[in-house]
Structure formats: C-alpha cells, structure tokens
Amino acid sequence: MHVVLISECTRKSVSRTQRILDSYAPRAGIRTWITPITREGLAELHAALRKSATRNTAVACYQNDGRRRMCLLWIVGARGRFSADGAVAVRTSRRLARRAAEIPLWLRCVCLLAQAASLVHDLGKYSVYFQNKLRDPKMLRDIVRHEWISVCLLRALRQGTSWQEAWQVLHDGKALDEVIKRPTDPGSRAFHAPATALEAVDFLVASHHLLFSSGKDGGSVPLVAASHVRSKNVPQNYSQPHESLPEDIWKNFQRLESKLSALTEALQGQEHTEFWWACLILARAALIFADHTVSARAYPTPPDDDTSAANTRFVENKRVLNQPLHWHLTEVAHVAANAAWRMGQLSQSTEGPLEGLQEASVASIVEPADEASRYHWQNLAADALARWRQDNPDTPCLVFNMAGTGSGKTRMNLRAACILSRDASPRCSIALNLRTLTLQTGYSLQSDLGILPADMATVIGDGVTQKLFDWAKRAEAIDDQDMVEPEILCSGDSGPLPAWMEPFWRTARERVIVGSPLLVSTIDFLDAAGRPDRQGHHVKALLRLMTADLVLDEVDGYEPDALVAVLRLVQLSAFFGRNIVCSSATLSLATADAVHAAWISGQKLRRALMQDPDMAPARSGIAVIDDSLAPEVLVSDNKSAAFSEWYAKRLQDMMAHLRRMPCMRRAFLQPVEPSIQGFQNAVLEAVQRLHTENAWEFSPGRGISFGLVRVANINGAVATARSLALALPHAHVACYHSGDWRISRFHKERRLDHLLTRKRGNAHILADKEIRSLVARTTLPNVPFIVVATPVEEVGRDHDFDWAVIEPSSAQSIVQVAGRVNRHRLVSCGNAHNIAILRYNLRHCKNCEQGTKNIPVFKSPGYESKRLVRRYKEYDLGQLLPWQAETLTIDAGLRLGGGSDFAIADDRGIAERVTRFFGADSDGGEGLFSRSPIDAFRMSATPYEQTPLRNRAGRKQLWLMRVDGENALYFRWDEDPHGASWVRNKHEMREEEAAPNAWLALSPPEMERLCHEAGIWPEEGLQAELTSYTNDSFMYDLGFGIRRIT
How remote is the C-alpha of 761 from its chain's centroid? Predict the structure, then answer.
C-alpha cells in the first residue's frame, strides 16, 4: 500500500517523531512523508510512534484507497489537530472560558463538594496520638479512625466551638455514634441518605477511606461501631491537638461550604437525595483520586517535630515523615476540585480528551457480513440501529443481543457499540466472566476483525494465565491505608492520557485501563466501579465506565448475588449516559427485567443530577436483535410494565420461530435410582447409549465419539470420572474443572480447544497423532473419548461435542451445556438422541441416601432457595421439563418465556433475590438501589458485601507442587503475624494413582517440563487455588485433579 504521513507535532515531539518517520519513509516536505509500505511495516511504525507519543505528538497516516482520494487510517497523539477525516485547520481560535452562569449547577456543586471536603478530610490527623503514631515505627490500629474524628471536629466547629474545645467531642458517646446529624422523623419508614450540602460534606469526609458498617437490611441506620470506632473509651492523646488549626484552612472551608449551601438552597431535603447521591458519586471519586495522587508525591523536606505531618514514605527501607498536613490539605483540595471538574466533563458528554478507535479499526468492525452467510442477520440489525441513531442522535440505548450459538454475537456486540456511539471515535469496554475467555476474545477480535493492536488492551489480573495464552498462540503459529490494592495486570497499548489523569496510575501498563479505546476485561476489574468500598480500584474502574460504552457478555450466566453486582455497572453506565449491549442467547424475562430496572434507575439518577431534560432526556432507546426475527428498536418511556409486556411478546415470537427449525439437539430422560451409586450407574448407561447412537467412523471398523458429562461440583466430577474410567476400560476419560494445577488445566484447555473446534469437520481429529495412537492401542471397535466437566465448560469454551450427559442445576445449565453439542457442524440429528438429562441430580441422590429432605439441591450452582423448594416438584426432571413422547428438543426456548416449569422456578429464584436491590418486588416495594429517596443503607459496605461478584464462601488456600525426580512434594501458603511462606504439608494433600485410561492427564514431571516449554516458572505453573470450608483435607487424583475430602 502507499501511505502519506503528516506531522503536526510541537516542541520536542517534532524531532522525536521525525527520527522515527525518517527511518521508515522518505520526506516529501518539511513535515510530510510518502512511501510504499507493507501492512506489517505500517503496524511496526504505528507502534513505534505510539510508544514515544506525548501530549505534543500529532501524526496522521493516510492511505491511497484507489478511488482518487486519500483515506485516513489513524492518528497518533493529539487528534484535535486534525478533523474527523484528517484535514488540518487553516486557522485556530482559542475557546473562551465559560462564565459561571454557563456552568451547570450540578457541576459547580460537585466541584464545591469535593474541594470543601478535601480541605477538612484529614483534620483528625492533627491529634497528638496520630502525630506520635507517624513518628513511631510500630503502626498501631486506631481506636477511632482519623476520618471520623475529622467529621466530629467539623460538626463542633460549625457550632462555633473553638479548636481546643472541639476535640472534647470525642468523649461524647452520642456524638461519636451519629452518622447523620439530623432530627429524626418518627413516621419515616427508612433512614435516608444525605439530603443537604452539610450532610454530603460529612459523608465525603467520613467515607474517603472506607464506608460505614450497618445492620443487615435496607432502612437501617449505618453504624460506625465496626468500621470507624473500635471503642468509646477514647484515650486523652486522641483529644489533644498537636498544633493549632491553620486559619486559612477553616476560612476557605467556611467560604466554600457557604457558597455550596447558597447555591443549593432549593435542593435541600428528603426529596432531593437522588441529586445529592449523584453529586457524591463524582465528588467522592474526585476526593479519593486527589488523596491518592497527592499522597504519592515526595515532599522536598520532611516536617519538623512541631509541624503536623500527613503521612510517611519509605527512604532506603526506613519509614520517614513525608508531607506537612497543612500543605497536604491545601493541595488535595486543589487537585480534587480540578479532578471533579474534569470528571464532570467526562460524565456530561461522550466527546472527551481520551482516544477512541482508529478509523481503520472502526471500518473493519462495521464492515457488512456476507449476505449468503449465516451472519447476514447482523446487517439487518446494524441497519436498524443506524437508522435509530440517526433519528435519536443524543439518546442512549440499551441493546439485548439474543442471537443463537455460533451466530457471531461477539462481533455484533462490538459493531452495535460502534454504530450507536455518539462520538466519531468510539470507545468500548467488553466485560467477560472468565480470565481465559478474556484473552480468547481479545485475540479473536484482533485476528478476525482486523482491529489495530494499538486500539485494544486486555485486563485479566493473572500473569500466569497471560503467559500461558501467549505461549499457546506462539506454539500454534509454529505448528500452523486503604485496603492493599492488588496489581492490575494489563496487556495492550494506550495513547497519552490527559495531564490531570496521569499521576493516578502506578505504572504505564495500568494507564491502558482508561486510555485504551477498546478494553477487553474480566468483569472482576470493572466490578470495582460498582463497589464504592474498593477505594482506588473503584475510581480507576469508574473512570473507565464513564468514558466508554459497555458490552456485557452472557449477562444471564451469573447467580443472583453476582447479577446484582453486574446490575450496579448497568446502573452506573446509564447514569453516565453510555450505551450498553447485553448479550445472551437465553436472556429470560426475569433477567431482562432486572437489567431494564437497573438501566432506568441510572437514567433517573442522571436526570436528578442534570436538572435539564436536554442533557438527560426522560426517554431512552431499547433494542432487541437476534438471528431469527427482524430487529426491534424503540424509544422507551422507561416504564417497567410496558417493557415487560413488550419483551415477553418478543420471547413468544422467538419461541414460535425455534419450533419451526430443524432439531439439532434431542434429549432423552435417563432414569436414576436416587442413591450415589444409582447416580453413577445412570451416568454409565447414558454414556453407553449416547456413544452407540453418535459414534462416527475414525478408521475401518473403528468408531469414536467425543462426549461431555456435565457434573455440578468438583467432588462429584472427579468421582464420576473415576467411576467411568473403571467401568469403561476401553474409553479415554478426562476431567476438567478449576481444582487443578494451573499448567494441567491449561494443557487440557489447549488440547480440547484444538480437537473440538470442528467448523471444518473432523479432518484435524483424524490427523491428530495422540488420537490416532490411542485408537490404535484398542482392539475393540468402539472408543469413546469422555470429558467429565464442571460448569467451567458451559460458558466461553467454544467446543463441539458429539453428545452430552447433563446433571442439571438449572434450566439455564441445560441449555448452556446443550450449546456445546453439535455447536459447529449443525447437523440435524434426525430421530437420534445426542443428549441425556438425568432424572435426579447428585445432591438429591445424596439427600435421599442420607434421609434428608426439603434441602435445596439446585443451588451452588443454581437459583433455588429454601422458600422455593416446593416449586421444584420433588426435583424430578421428568416433571420439571416438557417431555413429549419421552424426548425433548433442546433450544433457547426451554429457558425463555416460561418454556418449562424448571425455567419458571428459576426465574422466581432470580427475582426473589434481585428485586431486593433492583426493580420492584411482588408487593410493589422498590429495591434498595432503585429506591427513592436514596436509602442510607447504601452509605455502608454491607449491601455490596452481601452481593459480591464472586462467592467468597470458604477459605481460599494456595497450594504448590514441587517435583523431586519422579515424586511430588506439596506445600501450602501459610500466613501468620510473623510472615508468610510455603510450608510442606504431608497430611492435608494426599495422592491417588491415576486410572490407566485417564486422558489428558500429565504426571508431575511432565507438568514441570511443560512449564519450561511455556516459559513459566514452575513455582507459578504448579500452583492450585483451592477452597476449604471447615478443616478439609484434599486428595490429588493424578488422573482427574484435586478434590476435597470432607
């Protein structure tokens, strides 16, 4: 290709970029280069420019597209120096500063809140106790936290109390307990969140390190007892000031708070809690941002003994005083005001200073699909979204992508986000539920969609996972004070960030989190945006959420508590005016209602903040797209009832369409005697029948099949794998679950990904050396290859099995597992069956054997609760599913629109939990996060801890295997007050010999060798993260992985 490069750099960037460009292309002018170049060479040049880019860099690249014109490919650096199509301005004019009257009221409030609270956020550090603590190398836990002392002092000073007398409030037990100082209303049902300027300032000061503790439910008053105050017996040195309060601090604070109160005189009271809560989201983020940023600076000279210090730092492994407290308060206030202004600008408009996707990447993403392919539905959906965006240029949109398995949902999600973006350079975050799936999606987007590497980054949080994935891709190419924040592990690139934002990020790698136009991330990172108790990570994730549209993959794949955590992200994205794409082929009405409820609550919060219908319209866009029906996009008035009715009708239409389609997955009901041995016998019978019906010819006289046995939990999976291996010595049995050594799990995933990618048939299986060798060893005519797997197989693994046996946990689990059968080949199964559903699951069989009844069995995983036991009809899948002549066609309709009693019971389980937080329950009561006035319960950490993204039940244990010749030694990571280390443990990790026909099982020496081949240190690759609930020990089955011994 031929390209033209134009430089509009300034200052030192001029010479720096000239050196790079001169090494790739000859000059055609003072700041112009023209050259023929390969795509690889251009990518290398692009990367070199981005690596050296600063805020003064501005280089544009244009390609001759053969139609008598030059097409802009990309811009590195300051995009504002070029127009959207790459033109350079003839003249420029400076934008006049906005007058105060033109600045929105809410933005002025946010800035004043952040600045005022910052000036007094560390008043409590003026105590003699705290100053002694900073100077003492033994850092003790505070009896009363300094931020709560700051609030108590602030309230006393507002009453006209002198600085010296104000400290005595710490000996007033009632004052020490008052979270919000206001007259109580005896008739009020709930205690509401801050409703005045003074209450908002107090909450900011109190919560800048952590939230309050509280009772167990909404409407309760937040408490300080477990969070801020350990004891009411406060020592005297807590109530003695180390020095006088600087006069300028208090005068400036009074000026700012008076200004804020006067500005919001009409916005005081219970009916305005939504306005104040919306302001607090931004102001609190700005305060945390400023506190972290300023505290990280090294002050030139440490404070002397008479001067109060704010913090310490390490110099040559020794803790020394760092910043004077007076300077710290003033500087944090200055930075917080600026950050609040900048964040307000980011949340107000989709246009911003951060880079979006390059023109070449966008062109590749939105390129139409082939009309003759199975992906042509994407063109219809894209056209409908484009028309809607043209008619509604300023309205955010919520999209439900319900296309079926293998129809290209991932690509359409991103295409929809680009079309709906209100910015010429879109920005998007794709949130996924699995680490390895995140890397797979990132790789797929780059290779399949042609996205420029510089436009995309991934965040996973696990360096070993990243190294293993990178090694596998190379191998394929050859063969053809706050809580301690864990390191955020990122890969990818980022252009220069705005100057105000850069100091907040610890490393250049972390900057890609907000700087990258396209972020493919585990949802664990973005989850922190909806967790205000996560402090620094909360702000980092919030900055990403407010500056990019959001794609949620498999949004119905979360259990109810985790779904609430996901819905908080939906609410915040709607609050920031972003578009959201939710993707799942089985998005039930209950889940869609919950997503919609979170969406409209975010919209409502935005309207309460903006106080302007032009900036926050009362209506929004709702779209449903899939590969079976015409797309529907409408302008919604944000009424839940109307949405439910419309969506239910859509589901009925989808189900009618599915009934007309050829059957790809047909199930039979496998009888189960309700005992543990009866369960294993039933699995064996189902495996034998399915192999007989689905085996295909591998070589003359030899038939093979690849089957999946889905078992809900690890212990059951290992036991089932061992039972099958013993009963079927001619079969090859693998066990895939999370309780395995990292390198072993990676090996299994790599082999299964290769063997079960069958988009082009079975030729690669026929040619596989290992499969050929295993089949050749067997004299029998039938050779089943069986993978016993837990739910880790259900989501994200793009595998195509010949058949499956399903131990059900929910209607969702049946549909998800069935989606791994006949996934790529899509061959009509005729009258044959390729799925068996067990009549009872293993947990029910255990309960029957032990004589225990009415204990939920469809949980962990599953949606059953004690209140819903009767709805599951004795746990009999013969009654819960709509069998016809002892067979069942499995498609998305089984989960959608009440397609089965199982699905109806699951929906009730979801709604029972989720409506406590979003939407309305059966009695019409609003959920905690949807409620107005804002419930004070949200000021505490409790509701966020009650609904975590990941279930933290049990104790996480980290184990290490070290190889000693042919033997393995096992070590557990033990922590105590004196340190932490690997401790050899002979008793809690025992070994069990591998079954002779264990498939995909590596011996310890083989695992160690694979670590070296992959470039992984064995101490990393031979780790396993296990969960212990009591005093469990573990059994390492050398063929099938690690299970708990209870």
Answer: 35
Percent of the chain with pLDDT over 70: 91
Spacing of C-alpha 645 from chain mean position:
30
**b/e 583-610 (16+ beta carbons within 10 angstroms → b):** bbbbbbbbbbbbbbbbbbbbbbbbbbbb
Q: Are 522 and 461 in contact (CB under 8 A)?
A: yes
Q: Angle at the Cα of 672 (from 667 to 676), degrees rounded to 5?
A: 130
3-state secondary structure of 688: helix
What is the DSSP secondary structure assignment for residue 213, as one 8-state letter? B
Distance from C-alpha of 279 to C-alpha of 608, rounded to nearest angstrom:
10
- Provide φ and ψ at 373, rounded to 5°: -95, 175
Q: How many Cβ atoms are within 10 Å of 619's Cβ, its own excluded?
A: 15
Question: For residue 122, what are the CA distances in angstroms to 482, 537, 872?
Answer: 14, 21, 55
**Crossing angle for the helix pair 463-479 and 435-449, nearest 10 degrees?**
40
Tell me the CA distances in angstroms from 398 to 123, 350, 518, 560, 649, one per residue in order: 44, 16, 19, 21, 18
Residue 581 and residue 552 in contact, taking contact as beta carbons nearer than 8 Å: yes
Tokens at 812, concatenated: 């969702």
Q: Identify the structural domains of the chain with CATH numbers, from first to last.
A: 2-81 (3.30.70.240), 104-348 (no CATH), 359-659 (3.40.50.300), 666-891 (3.40.50.300), 955-1045 (no CATH)
How do beta strands 666-670 and 835-838 pair? parallel
Q: Can you tell me the distance from the alpha carbon of 659 to that of 894, in angstroms, rounded to the nearest whole number?
A: 11
pLDDT at 575 (0 to 100): 95
In DSSP terms, which residues pair with 862 in a beta bridge? none
Decide: 465 and 497 in contact? Cβ < 8 Å: no
Place of tokens 């399903």: 806
- Are 893 and 654 in contact by the 8 Å Cβ rule? The answer is yes
In the block, tokens 């604070």 appear at: 253
Q: Using DSSP bridges, classify how beta strands 732-736 and 887-889 pair: parallel, antiparallel or unpaired.
A: unpaired
Q: Which pLDDT belongs to residue 352?
A: 66
Give me 754's structure tokens: 């290769």
DSSP 928: T
Q: What whole-number distance in Å separates Cα of residue 911 and Cα of residue 869?
A: 15
Query: Could you give the angle at the alpha carbon of 595 between the alpha carbons of 410 and 634, nearest 5°?
Result: 80
In which band, very low, low, confident or very high, does the pLDDT at 511 lie, cut at 50, 70 and 90?
confident
Helix (H) or strand (E) holding 562, with range, is helix 560-575
Longest Cα–Cα distance of the chain, Å, equals 97
* CB neighbourhood size of 910 (10 A): 23
- The helix (H) or strand (E) run that includes residue 635 is strand 632-636
When pLDDT is averaged across residues 285-302 and rounded to a whole number, the result is 94
The answer on pLDDT for 911 being more than 50 is yes
Q: Regarding beta strands 632-636 and 620-625, do their DSSP bridges make them parallel or antiparallel, or are they unpaired?
A: antiparallel
The pLDDT-based confidence of 84 (bands split at 50, 70, 90) is: confident
Per the DSSP assignment, residues forming a β-bridge with 652 are: none
Neighbours of 246 (CB within 10 A): 16
Residue 480 has pLDDT above 50, yes or no: no
Give which of 666, 686, 953 is closest to 807, Cα–Cα: 686
914 Cβ contact partners less than 8 Å away, ≥ 6 residues apart: 560, 563, 564, 567, 590, 594, 927
Q: What is the 3-state secondary structure (H, E, C) of 115-168?
A: HHHHHHCCHHHHEHHHHHHHHCCCCCCCCECHHHHHHHHHHHHHCCCCHHHHHH
Q: Which of 62, 48, 53, 59 is nearest to 20 (CA)?
A: 48
What single DSSP character describes residue 305? T
Burial class (CB in 10 A: 0-12, 13-18, 19+), 340: buried
- Residue 160 φ/ψ, nearest 5 degrees: 90, 5
Q: What is the dihedral of CA 995, 997, 999, 1003, to 10 degrees?
A: 50
